[in-house]
Amino acid sequence: xxxxxxxxxxxxxxRSWLLGEMFPRVIVPRAxxxxxxxxMLGGCAPTGQLGATECSDAVSGIVxxxxxxxxxxxxxxxxxxxxxxxxxxxxxxxxxxxRATLDRFDCDSDAFDAELEEGLASIEPEGPIASAxxxxxxxSLLGTVRQATGEWVLxxxxxxxxxxxxxxxxxxxxxxxxxxxxxxxxxxxAGITLRGAGRDATTIRxxxxxxxxxxxxxxxxxxxxxxxxxxxxxxxxGLVAGPSASIALNGVRMAGxxxxxxxxxxxxxxxxxEGNEGSGRGTTLExxxxxxxxxxxxxxxxxxxxxxxxxxxTFAGNGEVGLIFLDESSGSVSGSTFTDNxxxxxxxxxxxxxxxxxxxxxxxxxxxxxxxxxxIINGLTVRGSTSAAVIFGGASGGSIGGTVCDDVPYGIVxxxxxxxxxxxxxxxxxxxxx
Length: 434
Known about the structure:
The protein is an alpha/beta fold and 434 residues long. It is elongated. The N and C termini lie close together (10 Å).
């Protein structure tokens, strides 16, 4: 009986980082509710000289409230700054009071705006999400958030962080051919599209730690026709998102994610959640014609109740696993290729994916199941894996049919506690260890 090789259990360790630190429970709903703030101050006050102190105090009130909001977004639950975000809205209150002050004291609009801009610039956010909130709130208060949707073509000299912070919901940010270097995580707070000139033409090259991109919105975020490449020295994933996220990738490459100690980083794409979080919303990750390569942990990892639709994708040279389903995640994978990943496809927890008409070449194991995972496998071809084509471990079940095993030491290996339904397969069947 062949031993069950390592693979799936090692991969499951990496979910703890995002669940605890990058996506505290207060962030996702509050980002959607708060960041719709538009410039409420413009055009409401003529110039004047009276009440200079009151006018200045009004500015200070807005800056202090904005600083508090940004600081709240930098807090981590359970840590030194673990307090919950207050349910009140001090920034809206400060803006309302400032409007009244402007009207009452006939403040100098230009001086007010200049003092507000200077005060907002003095805020020092901690962490990538707090930095993005600071950019968005500052742009909203200063009236630089773009109201029009449609295309926004990035031109030389524009900072991509500022552009996505100022972009209206539904905007398509068009990235030119060439390389865009980022040394800090790009945080997407609104449902926008990033569109490049082609997967081999436009590259976002990130040296940021933790993640090249973080999605913190319940609206759909789309990436099209571009590459995201991790080039830094610190552990990082390509794109990470929380339980409420919905992502669409078309013609994208996610490459080079770096894994660190304690399960940090290493995924090309990681949709994070626990249990069945994220379920009931239909497809939350849609992938077409995309490539996931040279990521130290996984090409794609989906957790919680996330549901995927992956078509015509390539997973190559990923360190532990090409594609892994965790918790109660589900969805379909079809017409895809998996080459030289340690494990091609994997499922654990109580995941129920469907894997159709795909090919796995090389690596140690073609497909591996653990815990109570119950995939539907049909039309899978596995060739050249050095350990086994398919392994059902733990109490896994599901079904497998139409599978071809070629040039592998073992075909379908089933542990004594697993109970999959076997259809017609061109594979030998071997018992695994208890």
